[in-house]
Each structure stands twice: as structure tokens, then as C-alpha cells.
Amino acid sequence: MTDLVFGPQRCSIEDVIEVARHGRRVRLSDDAAHRAHIEASAAFLEELLASDTEIYGVNTGYGDNCTVLIPADLVRELPAHLSRYHGCGLGVFLDEAQTLAVLVARLQSLNQGYSAVRWELLKALSDLIEHRILPRIPAEGSVGASGDLTPLSYIAATLIGERDVTYQGQVMPAHEALQRAGLKPLRLAPKEALALMNGTAVMTGLACLAFQRAEHLSRLAARLTALAGVALRSNRDHFHPRLFELKPHQGQAQAAAWIYGDLSGVEPESAMRLQDRYSVRCAPHVIGVLRDALPWIRRDVENELNSANDNPLFDGEQRLLLHGGHFYGGHIAFAMDALKTAVANLADLMDRQLALLVDPRYNHGLPQNLSGATGPRAAINHGLKAVQISSSAWTAEALKLTLPASIFSRSTECHNQDKVSMGTIAARDCLRVLELTEQVAAAHALAVMQGVRLREREGGALDRLGAEARGFFDQRARTLPFIEEDLPLDHVLRGLAAEIADSSWSLYP
Q: How far is C-alpha 289 from the chain's CA centre?
């Protein structure tokens, strides 16, 4: 991969993912005009300070304290205070990929050139990414406006050599990690702590990761539906292209085409039912909702990623000081609330298909609980009975978390932050729903593989699969056990869920 260059060009979700999960390197642009644009904003701030202009968060207090003027001789001490008093985050720490995604999102926002930060600060941020000096960022403590203040304070603190980081696999003080990497702590300029913290980088970085996992799950749900269709001897015509021309939702038609293509092998003389149950027949309609949501979610996440989202903003070329509320994460909150609902519906869909597969009343002749045991030993073996129970539990928890976070706005900070987005909570909820749905997908993958293998005992089941689906089946069959005698399956399910979360399975091009 070529380096991700931070310059005048836009950054994509895929750019964030490649840095966060695949080791892509980063650097600042060599474009002299872009550097001049960055420096113009910082220079404009210094001019305003020299003329005693009142500037929020630079020579005033923060939040409701904006009416408090800061003595000139204390202005340059103020940034460190902002980072320190926000050091109150709790909860689990963001993992490596999440932290890198947050760093990329913050760097790209400041790279827009309207935050009055120096080139040196951008370089320091890129150095954290390049050397993988990762601030230990607690997940909890942001209401999503005035931005992700508390979690982002851990980035500001790292840059000045305070608090803890992870470096080369060890947790250590930030100043020690910087020293080992040959770097020095910064003294933040008047606006720079506010620029680092007063933005939407945590929710946006997490949203990028969520988007990729949801996109992959939509493809996987289609593939697993096709395999479930083989095991259940379903009717391929439910996914006929002409049918979906008559209700032209693009994502729905795409999901149907994937399933139809996966069932493009030799058709049996007849399906078991004229109309399959809804969880099979209506699978494109469920998957299609997510597929059709992804384009606008991408639009809003990438617009946020490529925006100047702190306050105030400084246009050095047009000589404008702009006080506003771009730290508000409403677009990310709504996108993540919508995404987690669409993803939880995939969990419900796959769980319902799994319930059909294990139940001899509905699986058209497959063994109870998909047990592979035969003869007298069939009486003591229980196949996937407990897996189906666990899948139901994971699905219920995913569905429970779909209550929109954005409706829980709380008035805070002396009623200055009296309407807030809850965008970071929405993004964290979405990641949890994804995790649960990936667990359901792991259980379903195990079940459909078992079901197709059992159906193949009758002969001809694998002939129903198209080339891509047959290749997928063969690849998975080499690693997944055929369940004849009862055995613990937690290690198998954990491995499958991890692979699904990593989006490493080759599905549809």
C-alpha cells in the first residue's frame, strides 16, 4: 500500500481502515500551498491575540466559563489545563484499531486548515500514528457535543508527555514512549488543546470501523442464506431478478442477485414448499435495508471525517473568526443509530434461519438439532441445540441495544451544553451490536455448513451451489468440524466470529 498522505485531498473510510487494521503508513503532504494554508490559520490566530480580540477558549474560559477572560500572561498555560481536567474517562480502553482510527480522524479534521494549529502539531499527530504510540483512551465519558472532549483529552495529554500509552506491546508513561521513539513532548499553542479535543473524532473513527464490518455482514448474510436454502431445499425463484425489478430498491435487488447466483447450480425437481418461510423468502428485503442505507451512511461519515469540526474556526485567507457548533455529532449519531438497527435485523434474520434448520418440524427431513450421529448413538447426541439457544440470546441482546442513543440528549455543563448528540454512545452501541451479530453469524455459519453436509447424504446438495458459493463451502469445510459426537464449540465459534469481524472471508466481488 502507498502511504496515506494528509494534504488537500479527501480521506475515505477505506483509508481509515487501512491504517487502523492493515498497517498502512501515513505522512504529511509535501504540497507547499497546503502547508501555507495550515500555517495561515495559526498565524491569523496570533494576529488576533496580539490585537486583544476576544476568542473563545483561547483567552476566555471554556464552556459556560466563556465569560471569564484569561489574563494575557496565562493564555499559554490554558491548553494544558483543558487536557488535564478532562482526564476523567472510564470504561474499557479503545483497542489498537479503534485508537488508530480516532487518531486518523482527528488528524484529517485538523488538516482542513481552519483550526489554528501549527504544522508541528499535525506532524506530532502523524508521528503517533507512524510509531504506533497509542494513547490509552477510555471509551466512556463523551456526550458527543462539545465533541469528544474527555476521550480526546488523552490524545492531547500524550502529545505533552502525560498519562499512559501503549507502545511496542507495553503500557508505559507517554513521556517514556516518546523518548524511546526519538520524539519530544509538545508545548501546545493557545488553541491547540481545544482543536484536538473539541471535535467528533472518536465517534467518527468508530463509525468508519462499524461501516466496514456492517458492509461485510450484509454480504455474509446473503451467502449464508443461500447455503441455508440448500439445506432447507428452498425455492430459488424467490430471488428471481425479474421479481426484484418490480420493487426496485437497489440494495434489495443486489442481495437477491447474490443469493440467486449462489443457487445457480443444478435445480432439484421441486422445492419442498411453494413459498418458503419469511426468514428465507424475505432475506433480500431484510439485507436490502442495510445495503440501501450504506451509501448515505458513507456520505455522512466521510463528510464528517473531512470536515473542520472544532470551535472556533479561523479562516486565515478570508480573515474570518467563526464561532459555532461544528463539534456537534448529530450526523454520526443518526447514522450509527440507523446502522445498528439494520445490523440487528440481520442478527434476527440469521437466528430465525438457524431456528428452522435445527427443528425437524421445519427443516424438511434433516436430523433434530442437525446432529450427525446415527444409529443408537443418535439418542445421546444433541448437535447444535445449545448453539441455537446462545444465538437466540445474542440476538435478543443486539435487538435490545437498538434503542436510539441520540434521543437521550442530556443538559450538562451548567446548561451550556444543553442539547447534545450522544454520537459516541451511538457508535459504541453500534460496535457492540456488530459484535453480537457476528457471533450470531458464526453460529449460523456453523449450522448451514452442517446442514448442507447432512443434506449431501441424500446426494446432489452441493450441485445446487454456484461456483463462488461452492468454493466458499469447500474452503470452510476444510476448517469446520462435522458435528457427529457432542463437543464444546466455544473455541470454534470464537474463531469464526473473529474472522467475520476481521472481514477476512472472501465473499462477493
A: 18
Over the stretch 19-62, which tens digit does the pLDDT of each residue have? 999 999 999 999 999 999 999 999 999 999 999 999 998 999 88
> How far is residue 178's CA from residue 160's CA, in Å, rounded to a whole number?
10
Residue 360 CB coordination number (10 Å): 12
**Nearest-angstrom CA–CA distance, 326 and 244:** 41
Pairing of strands 134-135, 138-140: unpaired
Domains of the chain: 4-199 (1.10.275.10), 207-317+324-501 (1.20.200.10)
Note if 362 is an active site residue.
no
Ramachandran sector of residue 23 (left: φ over 0; alpha: ψ -120 to 50; beta: rest)? left
| Active-site entry in 56, 62, 154, 167 | 56
Burial readout 267-301 (b: 16 or more C-beta within 10 A, e: otherwise)? eeeebeeeebeebbbebbbbbbbbbbbbeebbebb
Name 503's Cβ contacts closer than 8 Å, sequence gap at least 6: 212, 213, 215, 216
Interval 69-102: pLDDT, tens: 889 899 999 999 999 999 999 999 999 999 999 9
- For residue 325, is pLDDT > 90? yes
Q: Which three cell numbers stand for residue 214?
A: 456492517
**What pLDDT is recorded for position 63?**
79
270 pLDDT band, cuts 50/70/90, is low
Q: What is the DSSP string of 357-402?
A: HH-TTTSSSPPGGG----GGGGGG--TTHHHHHHHHHHHHHHHHTT
Cβ neighbours, 10 Å, residue 309: 29
Q: Are 61 and 70 in contact (CB under 8 A)?
A: yes
Q: Residue 417 phi/psi, 5° resolution?
A: -90, 70
Residue 269 has pLDDT above 80, yes or no: no
CB contact set of 269 (below 8 Å; sequence gap of 6+): none
Q: Cα separations (Å) of 429 from 186, 337, 425? A: 34, 8, 6
CB-based contacts of 82, cutoff 8 Å, min separation 6:
57, 62, 153, 156, 193, 194, 197
DSSP β-ladder status, 170-173 and 320-322: unpaired
